[in-house]
Amino acid sequence: MIFTATLETVLLFQMKITSPVFQAYLECPAKCFLRAHGEEGTGNEYADWVRTENESYRRREVERLANGITPEECVRGLIKATALKAAKCKLALDVVASTDSLESELHAVETVPSGGRGKAALFIPVRFIFRNKLTTNDKLLLAFDAFVLSATLGRSVGLGKIIHGDDHAALKVKTVGMRSRVGKVIAKVTTLLAADNAPDLILNRHCGECEYQTRCRQKATEKDDLSLLSGMPEKERKKLNGKGIFTVTQLSYTFRPRRRPKRQRDKKEKYHHSLKALAIREKKIHIVGTPELKIDGTPVYLDVEGLPDQDFYYLIGVRIGKGESAVQHSLWADSVEDEKRIWESFLTILNGIEHPVIVHYGSYETTFLKRMCERYHLPDANSSAGRAVSCAINILSVIYAHIYIPAFSNGLKSVAGFLGFTWSGIDIGGLQSIVWRKSWERELTQPMKDRIIRYNAEDCAALGLVTTTVLSLLDSNVHEIGAKTLSVVHAESIVPQNISRWRLFASPLPSLEYVTTAAHWDYQRDRVYARSGSVPKKRALPRLRTRIKRHVEKVLLWPTPPICPKCGRRVRAKGPIKSRTLQDIVFGRASLKRRLITYVFQTYRCVKCGIMFGFPERYRICRKHGWDLAVYLVYQFVELCIPQITAVQSYNRLFGYGIHRSSLNNIKCKIAAYYDETRRKILDRIVHGDLIHADETRAIIKGKSAYVWVLTSLQNVVYIYSETREGEMIQKLLADFKGVLVTDFYTAYDSITCPQQRCLIHLVRDLNDEILGNPFDENLKFVVSAFGDLLRQMVSTVDRHGLKARFLGKHLVDVDRFYSIIERMHCQTDVSVKCVQRLERNRDKLFTFLRFDDVPWNNNNAEHAIKAFAKLRDVVAGTCTTKGMEEYLTLLSVCQTCKYRGVDFLDFLRSGEKDLDVFAASKRGRRRKTISYG
C-alpha cells in the first residue's frame, strides 16, 4: 500500500481532503478549516484576481498542449484516474484522482509508454501556474497530486511537472522525495478538520491575499491577539503563550529596559516586541538608544511600483520639497522596454537638484536602485545622481528597533496612518497595485493609470511626512504634526522596580504572604519554638564604655587547678614557676582598660601520669599579646564582621598598641587551631542528632569559585569548606544519619537515605515568582492558590500547637485531597504543567514534618546561618586562601553555635573553655544564656 502509518487516522475521517483544502493549509490552518467547512469569505480583490488568472492561464495552456497532439491521443473532460490504465492516450485533461478520504482534480496527466515488455507505463501529473516564479507550496501541491494519483492507481508516481509563466517554462519535480512531507501535512489536516472548533487564529503574511482577511483581522482585534504584531516569529509567540501571555496588552507589561554592555554598543539594537506593545497600549512613541538621521541636502522622496513576478519596475515616483510647494514626478513605463527610459529620466531629475538626498522606505527601493545600476549603467560617481544613489537613506532602518510607533506594523501605511496621513482609497496596498497594473495592460484605460499614479504620489507624500516626523522626534519629547500632538517616551527613562538583595516578600495571594511571615526568624523562634517547651528571653545589651583611664602594670598569679587534667588525681609535685608579660586589656563593667600584665603560673607534675600542668594552653600560643586582647579582636571580625585592617586601626588608635595586620592574622590562625576541637564536637553532635538543616553557598578563594556547606540543628551550627558543589562530600558525611534532613531542592541530597523535608519557603518563593512572571496564567494561579491555602492551614496549626505530629497529622488527608485535584487538572501552559510535575515529583518530601515532632517545614535555620557567612564573605571579599577560609569557618561555627544556644560568644572566648556544654552549664554561661536568636 502507498499509505503510511501517519495516515491511518485519515481513513477513519469522513470529510475528504481536496487540493484546495490542502493548499489552504499550506497558507494558513485557519483558512483551511473555514474553506473545508464551506464558510464564505468577505472577498479580496487580489485573491479574486489570482483565482481568475490561474483559471485563464490553465485554459490557455490546456489548449496549447492539446493543439500539439492528435485528438486520438488526448482525452478531455472530467475522467477518473482509474480509467487512465485502459486509455491509450498521451495526455489526459481534468483528471479526478480520488480515494476514500483524498481527492485531487489534476490539471493534466501525461502518459509515457512502457519502455519494454513487463514494464508499466509512467503517469506524470501536470499543474499550470500563471506566475513566473514558483514557491515551495506550488511544488508541495504538485506532490499532493502525485500522492493521490499514486494511491488511486496503486503504483508509484515519482515525477511531476509544473508549467508556469509567460514563457511556458516546464519544471520537472521529483515528488518521491516529498511524499513523506505530504503525508505529514495530510495527517495534520485530518486532525484539524476532525476538531469541533476552528484552530487558534494567527495572522500571517498570507492575510493580504486571503478572502478571509477582514474576518480574521476583526476577530484578532477583538481578542487583542499577539499575531497583530507583525514580524513576531512563531517561535517567540509560542514561547510567550507558554508563559500565559496571549494578548498585546499582556505583553506590554513585560518590557524592562536593559543596559547594553560596552561590547554590544556597536552592534544593532535588538527589536523589542514588548516595547512595541507598550507603545500601542500607552499610545505614545517610544525611543530606544540614540537613532541618527542626517539629511545634508535636498530630500528626494522615492517610491517605486513594480511587478515582483517579472522583476519589472513600471513607475518611479519622485517628490521634491515639502507641503504644497512640493514637486511630484511620476515616471511611467508602458512596457519592459521603457524601463531604461524612466531610469535615465530619474537620473536626469537628480542631476538637476543641488545636493540631492534619496529617501525611501523599506528594502524594495534598495533592490530597485541596485538592479537598475546592474541592468543599465551606474551614474558617474562625481555627479549629483551618483552620490545620491550611493548614499540613499532607508527611513525604515532608522525606525526599526529604535523608534516604536503605536501601530501594529512598521509598514509605511501603518506608520503614516498613525501620524494622520490618509489615502484616497480604503485598504489599498502593493498587492492591489499589481491588480490595477494588470487591468491597465488589458484595457489600456487612462483612469486606471491615473489611479496607480495617484496611489504612488500619496505614498511619496506619506514618506515625506514620516521623514519630517522622525527628524523632529530626535530633537525633543513633545511634537506637533499638523493638528496632532505626539508624546514621546525614551525607554531608558522607564524606571523598573528595584529588587534589593534581601527584598520584602510580596505576593498577589494573601495565603503566600501569611506563610512567609510565619517563617521569619524572630517570629518562628519567639512563637513556634516557645510552644515546643523553651521560653525565649531577650539578651541583655552590653553597657557602653564611658571613658578610658590610663593604663597601669599589673602582676597576676594564675590559679592552679587542684587535680590532674588527665587522670583526675590530686597527687602532685611542684614544678618550676613560669611567667608571661603580655600586652592585654581588662574588661571592666563599663570600660576596656589597657594593661601590661605579667602572668605568673605555678606549674605542677602529676605523680601518677607524670604530665606537667598549670600553664594554660592559651597563654602558650600568644607570645606577645594577652588572651583577652586576642579574642576581642577575633570577636570583632567574626561576629561583628569588621574588616581586619579596620579592627587593627581602631584598636591601635584607642589603646596605642602597634599591632600589625600580619600579627592579627597570626592571632586568627592560632585561635582557630585552638577551637578546632570545639568544631569537631559540634559536628559530631549534629551528625548523631535527630534533625539537620543543610544548605550551601558560593565562596570566592583568590578569584576562584568554591562552596561552603552549612549543617545546623536547633542548637549547633557547623560550616564545611568544599572546592565543588558536588554532593559526594555531604553524602559521605551523612551516610549514617537516621534523623530528618531539611534541605532545599538541590538534587545532591536525594541519595541520602533518611527521611527528608524540602523547604516549603523555597517552593513558595519559586511559585510566587512564576505567578509574577506569568500573571495571566489561570491554571498556574489556581494550582498555586490551592497550595497556598493548604499551607496556610498547616501553619495555623503550628501557631496554635507547635511542631507536634499529633496535631499536624490531621492535614495528611488535606494533602491527599490536594494532589487528587491537581492530578485531574488539564493544564494548558508549559509553566503550569511544570509546576504540577514538580509538586508531584516531590510529594513524599514536602510534608514530612506532619509525621515527626519538632521538624520545621522550612530551612530557616540553615538559611539564617548562610546569612551569617554571607556577611563575613562580603568582608573577606575573596582575598583569603583556602587555609584562611577554613580558619574563618571554624571560628564562625563556634560563633553561630553560641548564638543558637543563647551563649555570649565573647564571654565564651574569654573563658578559654573548649566545651560549649561545660561553659553553658557554668555560672558565667548561665548568666549570659538567652533564647534570643535574632
Q: Could you give the distance between the termini? A: 78 Å
Q: Total number of helical segments?
A: 36
Specify the oligomeric state. single chain
Main β sheet profile: 7 strands, mixed
Q: What is the CATH architecture assignment of the largest domain?
A: 2-Layer Sandwich
Shape: elongated
Mean pLDDT, all residues: 82
Ranges where pLDDT stays below 50 over 5 or more residues in a row are 1-13, 541-552, 928-934
For the record, what is the CATH homologous superfamily label of the largest domain?
Ribonuclease H-like superfamily/Ribonuclease H
In helices, the fraction of residues equals: 40-55%
CATH topology-level name of the largest domain: Nucleotidyltransferase, domain 5
Number of separate domains: 5
Text of the CATH class of the largest domain? Alpha Beta
Query: For the CA atoms, what is the radius of gyration?
Result: 43 Å
Q: In terms of topology, how is this protein built?
A:
Elements: H1 8-11, H2 19-27, H3 29-36, H4 45-67, E1 74-75, E2 79-80, E3 91-98, E4 103-112, E5 122-129, H5 136-153, E6 159-164, E7 169-174, H6 179-194, H7 213-223, H8 234-242, H9 248-252, H10 273-282, E8 285-287, E9 298-307, E10 312-320, E11 327-332, H11 339-351, E12 356-360, H12 363-375, H13 384-390, E13 393-394, H14 395-399, E14 403-404, H15 412-418, H16 430-443, H17 446-473, E15 478-481, E16 484-490, H18 510-517, H19 521-528, E17 554-558, E18 572-587, E19 592-606, E20 612-613, H20 618-621, H21 627-638, H22 644-655, H23 661-674, H24 676-687, E21 691-701, E22 704-712, E23 717-722, H25 728-733, E24 740-743, E25 756-758, H26 760-773, H27 778-801, H28 805-808, H29 812-823, H30 830-841, H31 843-846, H32 860-876, H33 882-901, H34 905-911, H35 916-921, H36 923-928
Parallel strand pairs: 1-3, 2-3, 5-6, 8-16, 9-12, 12-13, 17-19, 21-24, 24-25
Antiparallel strand pairs: 3-4, 4-5, 6-7, 8-14, 9-10, 10-11, 15-16, 18-19, 19-20, 21-22, 22-23
Helix pairs in contact: 2-3, 2-5, 5-6, 11-13, 15-17, 16-17, 18-27, 21-23, 21-34, 23-33, 24-33, 26-27, 27-29, 27-30
